[in-house]
């Protein structure tokens, strides 16, 4: 049951835009009547964590404990909690709050609520800054806690809480989840490799689009893609023009969009889920003549995220991960900035010493 005392928590935080992470002690709120407290066992490292700790987007407040792909075991529940019980495995993704009353929330689209609260780096109603999963304890409102499927591995499933829902949601929403649909996936990183797995599970014909020819074997042999397209090869790109129903673009670096628009059929869709830090250039004529669409998609609501976890468990979909201890996190960030990971770092929080020595 709930206690009246705040919870002492240990984690690793960035203090400034150098992005360097080091041990940090702080407090979380006491477990309220609608709250779930859990011991953090694993937390994925998302590229947005790197952007956040370095203040690449210009709105980071310090100190910041990153991490929004969080999996753990329930240790305490509030008196009103019905969804989970002590001992259950649970997850928390990118959201820990929303207004729960707007049109978006009413449609289970809390991720598009103008008052949503992010798991780390957001201000809560009490004025405190939310802190993420690079820490040993989480406390979250029951609504934003996800039940963990029994047969879904904790460490390899953790990245699904961001990378998974970020690609699952647009595949579903834009009708790219049907057998025989031709889906292109741009980029074969943390998001891209999971997008391939989900699209294949839906029965789609999947082509990986990348500038790295070296990823062809990985895409086809290891991930099950049907084809590989080198985006820096004009002949390959021209030969594939007008062949795809939709494209999921996962790339966060600035890159040309018009060649991708040329790949989709009339009335085809290019959906952006990566977040470059500079504007992308569009030629309106190339969109108009084919009645094509360029759209964006941002994670997913809680109901859809739970659905995604169940689908992943049923279809044996997990991320390809490299498990690390917390004291390796700064090296992991350096490697991530260079693209040196296949495909997601996951911190073994439960077996990492977090306190200063």
Automatic annotation (TrEMBL):
The keyword Zinc applies. It holds the Pfam family ADH_zinc_N. One of its GO terms (biological process) is lignin biosynthetic process. This is OLC1v1022381C1. It comes from Oldenlandia corymbosa var. corymbosa. The lineage of its organism: Eukaryota, Viridiplantae, Streptophyta, Embryophyta, Tracheophyta. The keyword NAD does not apply. Belongs to the zinc-containing alcohol dehydrogenase family. Gene3D superfamilies: Medium-chain alcohol dehydrogenases, catalytic domain, NAD(P)-binding Rossmann-like Domain. PROSITE patterns: ADH_ZINC. One of its GO terms (molecular function) is zinc ion binding. InterPro entries: ADH-like_C, ADH-like_N, ADH_Zn_CS, CAD-like, ER, GroES-like_sf, NAD(P)-bd_dom_sf. Its cofactor is Zn(2+). Residues 19-347 form the Enoyl reductase (ER) domain. Keywords: Metal-binding, Oxidoreductase, Zinc.
């Amino acid at each position: 049951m709930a206690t009246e005392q705040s919870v002492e928590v240990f984690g690793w935080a960035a203090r400034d835009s150098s992005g360097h992470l080091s041990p940090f002690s702080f407090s979380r709120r006491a477990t309220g009547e609608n709250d779930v407290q859990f011991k953090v066992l694993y937390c994925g490292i998302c590229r947005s964590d790197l952007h956040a700790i370095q203040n690449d987007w210009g709105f980071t407040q310090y100190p910041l404990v990153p991490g929004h792909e969080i999996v753990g075991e329930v240790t305490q529940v509030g008196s009103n909690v019905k969804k989970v019980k002590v001992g259950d495995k649970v997850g928390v993704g990118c959201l820990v709050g929303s207004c729960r009353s707007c049109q978006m929330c009413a449609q289970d689209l809390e991720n598009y609520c103008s008052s949503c609260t992010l798991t780390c780096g957001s201000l809560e109603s009490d004025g405190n800054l939310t802190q993420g999963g690079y820490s040993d304890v989480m406390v979250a409102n029951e609504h934003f806690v996800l039940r963990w499927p029994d047969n879904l591995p904790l460490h390899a499933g953790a990245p699904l809480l961001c990378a998974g829902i970020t690609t699952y949601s647009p595949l579903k929403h834009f009708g790219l989840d049907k057998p025989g649909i031709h889906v292109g996936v741009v980029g074969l990183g943390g998001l891209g490799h999971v997008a391939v797995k989900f699209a294949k599970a839906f029965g789609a014909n999947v082509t990986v689009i990348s500038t790295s020819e070296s990823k062809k074997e990985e895409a086809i042999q290891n991930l099950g893609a049907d084809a590989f397209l080198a985006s820096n090869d004009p002949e390959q790109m021209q030969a594939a023009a007008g062949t795809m129903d939709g494209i999921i673009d996962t790339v966060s670096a600035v890159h040309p969009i018009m060649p991708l628009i040329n790949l989709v059929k009339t009335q085809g869709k290019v959906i952006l889920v990566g977040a470059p830090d500079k504007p992308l250039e569009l030629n309106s004529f190339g969109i108009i003549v084919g009645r094509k669409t360029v759209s964006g998609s941002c994670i997913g609501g809680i109901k859809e995220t739970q659905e995604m976890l169940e689908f992943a468990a049923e279809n044996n979909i997990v991320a390809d991960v490299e498990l690390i201890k917390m004291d390796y996190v700064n090296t992991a960030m350096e490697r991530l900035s260079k693209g040196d990971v296949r495909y997601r770092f996951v911190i073994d929080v439960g077996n990492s010493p977090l306190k200063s020595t």
